[in-house]
UniProtKB/TrEMBL annotation:
Residues 3-116, 124-241 form the Response regulatory domain. It comes from Pseudoalteromonas arctica. InterPro entries: CheY-like_superfamily, Diguanylate_Cyclase, GGDEF_dom, Nucleotide_cyclase, Rev_trsase/Diguanyl_cyclase, Sig_transdc_resp-reg_receiver. It comes from the Bacteria. The lineage of its organism: Bacteria, Pseudomonadati, Pseudomonadota, Gammaproteobacteria, Alteromonadales. This is diguanylate cyclase.
């Protein structure tokens, strides 16, 4: 589990950081006022990242930075002032980056930097460079940003790695390499990985004019000239990955239901069948419908109905987190249960039905009981449309019987 430690002695600054962290960081965040308090936190918890003030009342000379780094915690430094000597000192310590505290926007940048670093954790990156020393230096810098790094000694090896591992999200490639140069590699990669799926940064120390433009025209997202400053490297990589994350967020939002944040009908029909082709043959499809939902709207109003839908969606999300769950109609939901047989799917759905029937829903401050009817069918050697038709038939049988039950259609 990811966890962040923030060490800042200014009440005003800490308040700002608390507010921004609550908005941007979806992880546990601990706030310490001093080095002594930071040590207490570190003794209790494992931290993914630390954001620390360079000067504290009990650590006037950056001792807190040295301590967090000694504890193998990647660290971003906050500092009120900076000169070339202090800059070199900070970088030589091995921090990820530093942020100058001069206005509110700097705190905004610092927290967004932490958010992107957290997204980087476990994200795969690949370095393609024929220089062993260059690969080693770049790998060390990327690992500071929490990437899982692989390397290749030429373009052909890099291309093979990328074809075999679609989880790689960042490629840094040198221009001058034997067998396949950086331009050829980028062109080949863009035949099967788009800009919104894989970020590419071109590298070169050749000093030729137009290299950066040619890299970008061939499909790179950005370009760096060797030798580059640590700060420039970190900024370019972080900004490139932030753009990739923003694109992913936009695409994800297009597939989400605005009210419940479950997948929407569009996603379900476009991608459910594709996902199923990648799994085993033991798959099931369930359709759930809230019983007497119209009565909730009529009695309490449509806003209350929305509250009920959100709470049902929350229970579905927690109960079926390993499966595809979507809102496919007003009060109707669909679940694709992959890699389990029909009996196992029935048991899971029956357990959910019981859990939901006993749950105290809160509508306008009052508790309320809700039940669901569920239709279940095999999803095997049939199209999604055919499976939906069978599940819908089972759902109507559940409605006709007594509601609040699960009916399966083989």
């Amino acid at each position: 589990m990811q966890r962040v430690l923030v060490v800042e002695d200014s009440k005003v600054v800490q308040q700002v950081l608390r507010h921004l962290s609550a908005h941007y960081l979806d992880v546990a965040v601990d706030f310490a006022w001093s080095l002594a308090e930071a040590k207490e936190f570190i003794a209790k918890h494992h931290y993914t990242l630390a954001l620390v003030d360079l000067t504290l009342p009990d650590a006037m000379n950056g001792e807190v930075v040295k301590y967090t780094l000694d504890q193998a915690i990647p660290t971003v430094v906050l500092t009120s002032t900076i000169d070339e000597y202090k800059r070199q000192q900070i970088l030589e310590l091995g921090v990820v980056d530093y942020v100058i505290k001069d206005n509110r926007d700097s705190y905004h940048y610092a927290v967004k930097l932490v958010a992107q670093l957290l997204r980087n954790q476990g994200c795969k990156a690949l370095i393609a460079d024929d220089s062993r020393l260059s690969r080693l230096l770049i790998k060390q810098m990327l690992e500071k940003q929490l990437f899982d790094v692989q390397d290749a000694h030429d373009g052909e090896q890099a291309l093979k790695i990328l074809k075999n591992d679609p989880e790689i999200k960042l490629l840094l490639t040198d221009y001058a390499m034997p067998t396949m140069d950086g331009f050829e590699l980028v062109k080949a990669v863009r035949n099967f990985r788009g800009r919104d799926d894989l970020a590419i940064i071109g590298l070169s120390g050749a000093g030729k004019h137009g290299l950066s433009a040619r890299f970008i025209k061939f499909g790179a997202n950005d370009f760096l000239t060797k030798p580059f400053m640590n700060e420039e490297f970190h900024c370019r990589v972080l900004q490139t990955m932030e753009q990739l994350s923003l694109i992913a967020d936009i695409k994800e939002s297009a597939f989400r239901d605005d009210l419940t944040n479950l997948y929407n009908r569009r996603y379900f029909y476009q991608f459910a069948e594709k996902r199923l082709k990648e799994t085993s043959r033991n798959n099931s499809l369930a359709l759930l419908d809230i019983d007497f939902f119209k009565a909730i709207n009529d009695k309490f109003g449509h806003e209350a109905g929305d509250q009920a839908l959100k709470q049902v969606a929350s229970l579905l999300r927690s109960s079926f987190k390993d499966f595809i769950v979507a809102r496919v109609g007003g009060e109707e939901f669909a679940i694709v249960l992959t890699d389990i047989d029909l009996d196992q799917a029935y048991q899971l759905l029956e357990a959910f039905r019981v859990r939901l029937s006993k749950y105290d829903f809160v509508i306008n401050g009052d508790t309320f009981a809700i039940t669901v009817s569920i239709g279940l069918t095999k999803f095997q050697n049939v199209t999604l449309t055919s499976a939906m038709r069978l599940a819908d038939k089972a759902l109507y049988q559940a409605k006709d019987q007594s509601r609040d039950c699960v009916v399966r259609q083989n």
